[in-house]
């Protein structure tokens, strides 16, 4: 197990930023940490990376304890905070060589070249960092966190402020990196998780409210089922209300209706039975799919 977080609580004075948070991340996963602003995402990342201690609870990274072996954990982790801390007056190549020196890497020149190739900085490598676009500055930040070949990457809002093209480029880069590393990234952008992550944790007010594979999150806490159905002829609203499990009926247009169940019950078998019993033909039927965004809104509102 690469990261274990067990019953972690963090207090800032009287404010409880995290409340008994627990989760585990296995190697080779890209985990999305979702939550509204102020939910506790950055606090979790700062604790895992040993920037701040928890008030209580246990955290380990590849078996190393954050209290007793923080130096060993820092060797295992590459951390890119939300506000990318770069030296704007340094040249890209010069800066990466400086970072390689801080890590006491033996073959600095070779490693710098590898990072420039991996992150697509070839054209920009001889420019000052301050002259780069934000997308390329993010690439420099990723090169910085990768240069010592860490097993774990912690990325805090890695695409904030980027334009759509830059977002796609950074997402593809993270997916490529994630094939060999354990990646944890925080975001409040649902499309980010759907595009990059294979697992997501949703946190709200310091508490985990969902933790599952991204493909399963659409079913999470599904307390409402919506079916759109078209019949071959007109049907009365009063008839549809009698279908077992139906809590709401709305007419969209002639012969097309939406039926809702707040119990999460699948209404389709009951709708087909109604059609057969009343000599109707169902021309089309669609079940409304729940996006990660709708799950997020439901769990954090």
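Sequence proposed for the structure above (301 residues):
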């Amino acid at each position: 197990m690469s990261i274990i977080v067990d019953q972690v609580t963090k207090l800032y004075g009287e404010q409880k930023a995290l409340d008994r948070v627990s989760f585990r991340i296995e190697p080779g996963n890209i985990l999305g940490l979702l939550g509204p602003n102020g939910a506790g995402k950055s606090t979790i990342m700062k604790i895992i990376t040993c920037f701040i201690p928890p008030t209580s609870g246990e955290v380990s990274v590849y078996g190393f304890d954050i209290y007793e072996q923080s130096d060993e954990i820092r060797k295992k982790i590459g951390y890119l905070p939300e506000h990318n801390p770069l030296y704007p007056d340094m040249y890209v190549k010069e800066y990466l060589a400086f970072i390689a020196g801080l890590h006491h890497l033996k073959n600095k020149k070779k490693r710098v070249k590898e990072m420039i190739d991996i992150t697509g900085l070839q054209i920009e490598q001889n420019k000052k960092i301050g002259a780069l676009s934000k997308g390329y500055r993010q690439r420099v930040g990723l090169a910085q966190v990768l240069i010592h070949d860490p097993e774990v990457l912690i990325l805090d809002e890695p695409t904030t402020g980027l334009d759509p093209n830059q977002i796609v480029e950074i997402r593809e880069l993270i997916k490529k990196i994630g094939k060999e590393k354990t990646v944890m990234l925080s975001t409040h952008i649902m499309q980010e998780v759907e595009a990059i992550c294979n697992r997501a944790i949703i946190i709200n007010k310091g508490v985990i409210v969902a933790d599952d594979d991204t493909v399963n999150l659409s079913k999470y806490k599904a307390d409402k089922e919506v079916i759109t159905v078209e019949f071959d002829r007109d049907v009365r609203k009063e008839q549809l209300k009698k279908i077992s499990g139906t809590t709401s009926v709305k007419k969209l247009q002639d012969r097309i209706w939406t039926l809702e169940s707040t119990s999460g019950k699948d209404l389709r078998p009951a709708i087909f039975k109604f059609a057969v019993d009343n000599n109707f033909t169902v021309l089309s039927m669609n079940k409304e799919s729940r996006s990660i965004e709708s799950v997020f809104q439901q769990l954090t509102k």
